[in-house]
Design the sequence.
């Protein structure tokens, strides 16, 4: 199996994992307790914020440094010695990004039932990972996903297309993670956002640069522990306070009933109009069924195609453990995702009870903390202080002087970060949540950076440019590229690119359409050949990218030349746009490319499909193209059939041999 | 002999894959088509349709994957292609 290693007592390390991480978890609880005591004896909040950010960063960096390596297989696949259970934890941290940790509960708050498309979509995809892809790629013995494409579809063209898809879907994603680290670090350290971005960058590089996959694996396990403790602690406290049972996942059913009762009450009291109120558990008010199920489909298939996730399963000791590891991954992800709707329900109930219906002079002060950051608006203006709110609401004719539902606007990122403050918990809990958000963003950034840099160093440099490169030079190139990509991503993040942040959700559709058909057909259908795969990747990825770019940036072009029409309101089915009228207005029609705030941006399409679900076109087209083109061109050589026989049989050597030294 | 065995192994593997895929379709999409009807039923204090999307399907996915790892391993052992 994997090459035996002579490295720094790493055998001891693997056999003592339980002890090491048990001690680490205990130490982390102790650390939180000490900070809690310090807060009680009067240590100021900003010191507690600093302690959380810097001490956790120091621990990750320490792990990153002690697990440094000079071996190629350690650098790329952690020596294939990561047990299923720990690989599951690492995958959990790899998977759960700043958006999952900070943003998902907020989306559920706003979207109610329809937001559960994200909960379902970001979990169910692991079924596809396990049954279609991961065990077979593990047996193949790849270092990267394009490695497999190249070997299976004979040549560097398939490899190069794989690299392009990988870089397209990973780079915007990693930029968003670094942006997330900057946001959290600047909020809790009180430093400038740009400086905070580079502090985050150093944290990321210290974890990933010296030890590659091996270091990222063991820091991700540590980061998972921090993030799950941080996510669950506030809602466990909240659930005990309100319902006397520390299992929020069970008690929020009661909160949902209270929300439903309060929704009726608010309408009866004139605090909400029936139009502004979207009952929390009623489906299909924000997405119609086609878009809801389409989004689930794209997120799931995207999960099974994202290279930074698939490569985690290259690190297990065996094919069997790769499968078990997918199950553990989903279990660890599940712990957070089945708690997110509880977060949303508790904070919605809190907002409905304590914000809506309250006379303006009695607004609780935590709102202003976020209003000053531009994240909470009341009556259309940032809720900076009481006077600003009174002034803004005074401009609305017939405003009753109490906050109504339609007056209140909250950014989705606020929900998780503010829960400790809303519930009046000590500051140490807020610091803990910040450390958790930071861990989520850093761990995902590490995984993504490694995926990009490995594709560039292994696939482009070693396999395409310099096949005879000695080990030492390969590792130097890998590290230089890692730093280069990281700095570029940090620089991009520091410019606060709103476009890039919005594009993160595109990654799932792009990966789904670009990689999933080629991977699945490549493993499950011997007749698939390189012509089919190349055509399939280009067609599936191309149509998805085209749909995203046209609907978002060039909607007029889509309407004029591609037969796109206005999307419709999910409830009334009335078109959102009057295209004939808009076409007559040059101030609207002649803007190109359109900005995000433009009336037409992301509001046109084919068959009323939102662009976030564009994989709905790309995935079937990718499969169909591979199938048709493969059948029209010669069958692949016998050695491809032999390759697949070997990949499909768990016993025996990996197909690609490990590079020793 | 050898090829026949590996063909039988692969066909058992494929059947398991299709069975898993069927369950995946049911719990990713199938049950949620009926969310409006299910929401009229209460389960642990939740509307059942909401519960299935928020927790029910997720629990099923986790159990499915542990079961799949076990079932595929049994197939590998039965046809004598499991790792040592």
Sequence:
């Amino acid at each position: 199996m994997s090459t035996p290693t002579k490295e720094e007592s790493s055998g001891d390390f693997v056999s003592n994992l339980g002890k090491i991480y048990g001690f680490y978890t205990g130490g982390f609880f102790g650390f939180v307790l000490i900070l809690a005591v310090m807060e009680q004896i009067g240590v100021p909040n900003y010191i507690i914020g600093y302690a959380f950010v810097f001490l956790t960063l120091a621990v990750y960096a320490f792990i990153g440094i002690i697990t440094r390596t000079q071996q190629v297989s350690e650098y790329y696949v952690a020596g294939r010695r990561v047990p299923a259970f720990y690989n599951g934890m690492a995958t959990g941290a790899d998977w759960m990004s700043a958006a999952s940790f900070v943003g998902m509960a907020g989306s559920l708050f706003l979207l109610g039932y329809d937001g559960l498309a994200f909960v379902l979509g970001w979990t169910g995809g692991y079924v596809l990972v396990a049954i279609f892809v991961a065990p077979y790629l593990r047996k193949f013995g790849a270092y990267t996903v394009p490695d497999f494409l190249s070997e299976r579809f004979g040549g560097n063209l398939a490899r190069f297309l794989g690299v392009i898809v990988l870089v397209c879907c990973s780079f915007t994603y990693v930029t968003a993670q670094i942006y997330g680290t900057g946001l959290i670090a600047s909020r809790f350290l009180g430093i400038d956002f740009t400086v905070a971005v580079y502090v985050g960058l150093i944290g990321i590089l210290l974890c990933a640069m010296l030890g590659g996959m091996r270091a990222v694996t063991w820091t991700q396990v540590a980061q998972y522990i921090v993030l799950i403790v941080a996510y669950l602690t506030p809602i466990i406290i909240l659930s005990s306070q309100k319902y006397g049972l520390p299992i929020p996942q069970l008690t929020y059913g009661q909160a949902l009933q209270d929300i439903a009762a309060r929704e009726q009450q608010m309408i009866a009291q004139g605090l909400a109009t029936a139009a502004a109120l979207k009952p929390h558990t009623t489906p299909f008010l924000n997405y119609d069924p086609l878009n809801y199920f389409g989004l689930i489909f794209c997120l799931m298939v995207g999960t099974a195609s994202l290279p930074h996730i698939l490569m985690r399963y290259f690190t297990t000791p065996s094919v069997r453990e790769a499968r078990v590891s997918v199950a553990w991954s989903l279990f660890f992800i599940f712990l957070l995702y089945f708690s997110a709707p509880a977060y949303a329900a508790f904070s919605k109930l809190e907002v409905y009870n304590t914000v809506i219906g309250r006379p303006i002079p009695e607004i609780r002060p935590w709102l202003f903390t976020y209003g000053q950051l531009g994240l909470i608006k009341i009556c259309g203006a940032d809720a900076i202080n009481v006077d600003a709110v009174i002034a803004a609401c005074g401009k609305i004719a017939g405003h009753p002087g109490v906050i109504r539902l339609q007056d209140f606007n909250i950014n989705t990122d606020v929900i998780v970060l503010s829960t400790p403050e809303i519930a009046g918990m000590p500051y140490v809990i807020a610091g803990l949540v910040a450390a958790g958000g930071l861990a989520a963003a850093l761990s995902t950034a590490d995984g993504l950076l490694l995926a990009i840099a490995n594709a560039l160093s292994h696939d482009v440099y070693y396999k395409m440019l310099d096949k005879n490169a000695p080990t030492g030079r390969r590792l130097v190139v890998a590290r230089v590229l890692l730093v280069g990509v990281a700095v570029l991503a940090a620089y991009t993040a520091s410019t606060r690119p709103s476009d890039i942040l919005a594009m993160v959700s595109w990654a799932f559709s792009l990966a789904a359409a670009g990689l999933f058909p080629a991977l699945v057909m490549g493993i499950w259908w011997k007749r698939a050949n390189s012509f089919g795969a190349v055509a399939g990747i280009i067609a599936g990825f191309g149509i998805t990218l085209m749909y995203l770019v046209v609907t978002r940036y060039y909607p007029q072009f889509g309407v004029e030349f591609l037969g796109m029409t206005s999307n419709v309101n999910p409830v009334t089915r009335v078109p959102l746009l009057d295209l004939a009228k808009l076409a007559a207005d040059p101030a609207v029609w002649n803007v190109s490319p359109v900005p995000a705030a433009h009336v037409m941006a992301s509001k046109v399409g084919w068959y009323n499909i939102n662009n976030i679900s564009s994989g709905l076109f790309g995935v079937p087209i990718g499969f169909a193209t591979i199938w048709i083109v493969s059948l029209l061109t010669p069958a692949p050589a016998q050695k491809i059939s032999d390759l697949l026989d070997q990949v499909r049989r768990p016993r025996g050597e990996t197909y690609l041999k490990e590079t020793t030294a | 002999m050898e090829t026949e065995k590996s063909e039988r192994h692969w066909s058992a593997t494929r059947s398991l894959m299709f069975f898993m895929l069927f369950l995946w379709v049911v719990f990713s999409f199938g049950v949620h088509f009926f969310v409006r009807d299910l929401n009229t039923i209460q389960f642990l204090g939740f509307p059942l349709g909401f519960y299935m999307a928020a927790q029910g399907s997720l629990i099923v996915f986790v159990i499915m994957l542990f079961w799949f790892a076990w079932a595929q391993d049994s197939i590998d052992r039965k046809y004598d292609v499991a790792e040592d």
In short: Chain A touches chain B through 46 residues (CB under 8 Å). The beta strands of chain A are 376-378, 381-382, 408-410, 565-566, 604-605. The radius of gyration of chain A is 25 Å.
